[in-house]
Amino acid sequence: MVKLIALTAVKEFEKKTVELFRKASIPVWSVFNIDGFKNNPEDSLESKWFSGASQNVRSIMVFSFVEEEKIDHLINELEKFNQNIESSNPIRLAVLSVEKFI
């Protein structure tokens, strides 16, 4: 089954993101630059998606259609990476179901 993954990271982690995708054998992905903002300090999904800072943060969004069996490997690698960084900006990943695709 194919899933859509959407990953956000601060711009400084772009090379690491590419490395993680390669380790997970994900052959194709798209990257675009985004500015992340946060002005709501509540403990919600939105407050955890971007950095703890209220100013805009240069970030990237990466998305790809991926076979489900490759996602667990990517998640494991992301968890290891996020545990070992000295930053308040971990890499975030969302996995979405794809009902149909052509």
Uncertain runs are none
**Proportion in helices:** 25-40%
Q: What quaternary form is this?
A: single chain
What is the string of SSEs from the N terminus onward? Answer: EHEHEHE
Summing up helix and strand content along with how strands pair, one would put the structural category as: alpha+beta
CATH architecture: 2-Layer Sandwich
Shape: globular
Relative strand content: 25-35%
Q: What is the averaged pLDDT score?
A: 85
CATH class equals Alpha Beta
DSSP, total strands = 4
- What value does the Rg take, in angstroms? 14 Å
Q: Tell me the CATH topology.
A: Alpha-Beta Plaits
For the largest beta-sheet, the strand count, sense and barrel status come to: 4 strands, antiparallel
What strand order characterises the main sheet? 2-3-1-4
In summary, what is this structure?
This is DUF3240 domain-containing protein. With 102 residues, this protein is α+β, with helices and mostly antiparallel strands. It is built from 3 helices and 4 strands; from the N terminus they run βαβαβαβ.
Structure description:
The chain is α+β, with helices and mostly antiparallel strands and 102 residues long. The chain has one domain (2-97): Alpha-Beta Plaits (2-Layer Sandwich). It contains three helices and four strands; from the N terminus they run βαβαβαβ. Strands 2-3-1-4 form a four-stranded antiparallel β-sheet. The longest helix has 16 residues, at 68-83. This is DUF3240 domain-containing protein.
